DNA sequence: AAATAATGTGTTCACGTGCACGCATTTTTT
DNA sequence: AAAAAATGCGTGCACGTGAACACATTATTT
């Protein structure tokens, strides 16, 4: 018999009822309001009461009904976002869009406050973060480019009891309740693999942008390491050249690359470890025999991919990161519990001309 | 100045209030209950009232608050799922898991009723679908392997006013409110590209499973076409051989492939267009110089990928399809409106040993 | 010691929707 | 023509949580 039907009404036993705050209150021998105050750490309860309530929650396996919570949420949750500033179409623009979009659709009453610092200046970060501390907030969402400064800032947040989450990249060992990002090193390896899979390269050109030189605040160091390690391991004789370009002087880029090529005419492989392979598109257009791999599905990069200038993009759903991060963080702020899972690594996608359709949502 | 902050409290003007049923009722000059009856097509209202309500809804841009809807949903929505039967770990098992999981977490009171037919027998489909019609349901979720039978069944559903959605594959031009799936032809092309990107193949072995022979109910025909078209276009001299294997007699598979190889010793490329490349894993293990590409991230396939027997898997988040499909369908049943977008195509992922981590969620 | 503040707890309304129920009025049946 | 059914519409409770409020009791200040 191939046909049958089954009911999946309750995951558990026949008439298992999902516990509510009322059940917790009864179990703990207190009122619903008290349970609520314990859960949300709003004070006004004794240590003994807290224990009874928390035990009851654990015993009954209670977790808040998010629909009801969203419906009832009146006071806005203030979430400060301490992130790099951006121009339209840049990486952090996408992160920002995901955040703003989610804030609107998530159903919680979220009040996002953006603190955008200059990615090239640690002073700017410090200025922004101290401004943030003067503002009343319920939680902070931030990334971690300036390690020392981030560590110091996180200590301050810990002291004040303000929960915080890292997005996109992080520093290990701090008190954040959440991290949503990806495996940067793996991404570097993957780019190297894709670049070299059609045959052994004699020489490779790695295009970097000027500010990468600053080792203190270089977000792509780990990714580049992954790239170089892969090449070193699999093609030990291959030489990797580096050329620096200035994104603020785009007119100089193509000449710089051309000049390099005439000095190293055997180069047939080009890569960037930042999100700006599109800056090399004009150069690549003139040299269809050069394989190229870059990162991130910025609109301009995708254009270069579709045109065939770039072979592969290693990327992930950028906006998914921010959406997911904000969702988990908001839920956590709402329930008063840290997210069940602390680290969320998103999958690295490989984009090629043939599978790009449908990637952008 | 690099720091600033902005509020995104309301997407629109300063104090824009999202309209509720009450606003609609006032605008239309009726009571809230009447609005509700119109929205959910539960009868008991005049044609003129309906128009007034619908106009008001459009004018104010009303759409139901899903949190409140989920919270208040008391009567379960009965959704019948008419899908291929499966063994554990097979493709449709994943689809099924996604459905069951979603039904539990979506927050609506969903009552899934599974009608599983034998993929190799159109009679079984007919039997199942008529059984389904004897059961009271609010909506039907189905896929489309047997075209004629599906068309007939859909007519019946249209007549009865039962909304239905296609999942994974569909038939164009029918009255379904929703389709969630992917571009099958594109997937075939992509597999061919990945198989051949490291160099021109002399001969290719396409491994098919026995029941593919039946052209009426062959779900992989289009995918295979994409594969063959790509090869034909880019490598016109390459010969594509086909070997049929029987998944029900796994012990015969490796000998069959070995026999083929000794007859065609130049073959270095192997592909399947179904989800069972793992059946060729033992053979591939013995021939590490053979490139192989398959479809779908079934556990066994991923194992073969990690072991290096398979180079690439073309796939998509299988369970995402069913999760997304059920979510949109349930929301549609709840609001009484068809989903804003009818066709949802998921992105094709390329899986390789280096990016498999984190793919499974 | 009285006034004031802090602490601990319970009560109540609000959020927006689903849906049962009740009551009139009109239409159909007997 | 009376009874029954169908139609059209409004009212009210329930869903589970957030959070203000009210009220005692205890601790602190004046």
Overview of the structural elements:
2 copies of one chain form a homodimer. Chain A is an alpha/beta fold. Chain A folds into 3 domains: 2-70, lambda repressor-like DNA-binding domains (434 Repressor (Amino-terminal Domain)), CATH 1.10.260.40; 75-181 and 318-346, Rossmann fold (3-Layer(aba) Sandwich), CATH 3.40.50.2300; 184-315, Rossmann fold. Helix content of chain A is 41%, strand content 17%. Chain A has 13 helices and 12 strands. In chain A, the strands form 2 sheets. In chain A, strands 2-1-3-4-5-11 form a 6-stranded parallel beta sheet, sandwiched between helices. The first copy, chain A, has a 6-stranded mixed beta sheet with strand order 7-6-8-9-10-12, with helices on both faces. In chain A, helix 2 (32-39) packs across helix 3 (47-60) and helix 8 (184-196) crosses helix 9. The radius of gyration of chain A is 25 Å and the shape is elongated. The interface between A and B is large, with 57 and 57 residues.
- Biggest sheet strand order of chain A reads 2-1-3-4-5-11
**Backbone shape of chain A:** elongated
Assembly classification: homodimer
Along the chain, the helix and strand elements of chain A come as HHHHEHEHEHEEHEHEHEHEHEHEE
CATH architecture descriptor of the largest domain in chain A? 3-Layer(aba) Sandwich
CATH topology of the largest domain in chain A: Rossmann fold
Find the CATH superfamily of the largest domain in chain A: Response regulator
Low-pLDDT stretches of chain A: 1-13
Helix content of chain A: 40-55%
Mean pLDDT of chain A: 91
Number of strands of chain A: 12
CATH domain class name of the largest domain in chain A: Alpha Beta
| Count of separate DSSP helical elements of chain A | 13
Query: What proportion strand of chain A?
Result: 15-25%
């Amino acid at each position: 018999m191939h046909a049958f039907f089954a009911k999946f009404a309750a995951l558990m036993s026949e008439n298992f009822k999902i516990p509510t705050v009322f059940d917790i209150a009864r179990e703990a021998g207190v009122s619903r309001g008290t349970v609520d105050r314990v859960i949300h750490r709003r004070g006004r309860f004794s240590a003994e009461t807290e224990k009874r309530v928390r035990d009851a929650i654990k015993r009954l396996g209670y977790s808040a009904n998010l629909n009801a919570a969203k419906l009832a949420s009146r006071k806005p949750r203030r979430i400060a976002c301490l992130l790099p500033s951006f121009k339209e179409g840049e990486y952090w623009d996408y992160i920002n869009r995901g955040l703003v979009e989610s804030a609107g659709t998530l159903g919680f009453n979220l009040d996002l406050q953006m603190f955008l610092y200059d990615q090239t200046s640690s002073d700017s970060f410090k200025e922004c973060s101290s401004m943030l501390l003067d503002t009343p907030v319920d939680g902070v969402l931030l990334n971690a480019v300036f390690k020392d400064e981030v560590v110091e800032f996180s200590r301050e947040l810990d002291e004040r009891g303000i929960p915080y989450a890292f997005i996109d990249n992080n520093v290990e060992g701090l008190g954040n309740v959440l991290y949503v990002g990806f495996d940067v090193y793996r991404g570097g390896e993957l780019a190297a693999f894709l670049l070299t899979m059609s045959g052994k390269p004699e020489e490779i050109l790695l295009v970097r942008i000027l500010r990468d030189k600053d080792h203190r605040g270089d977000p792509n160091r780990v990714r580049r390491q992954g790239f170089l390690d892969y090449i070193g391991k699999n093609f030990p004789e291959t030489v990797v050249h580096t050329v620096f370009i200035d994104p603020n002087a785009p007119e100089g880029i193509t000449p710089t690359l051309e000049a390099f090529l005439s000095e190293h005419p055997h180069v047939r492989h080009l890569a960037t470890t930042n999100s700006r392979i599109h800056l090399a598109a004009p150069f690549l257009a003139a040299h269809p025999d050069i394989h190229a791999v870059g990162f991130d599905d910025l609109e301009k990069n995708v254009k270069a991919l579709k045109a065939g200038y770039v072979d592969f993009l290693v990327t992930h759903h950028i906006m998914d990161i921010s959406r997911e991060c904000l969702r988990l963080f908001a839920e956590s702020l709402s329930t008063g519990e840290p997210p069940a899972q602390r680290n969320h690594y998103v999958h690295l996608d490989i984009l090629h001309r043939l599978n790009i359709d449908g990637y952008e949502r």
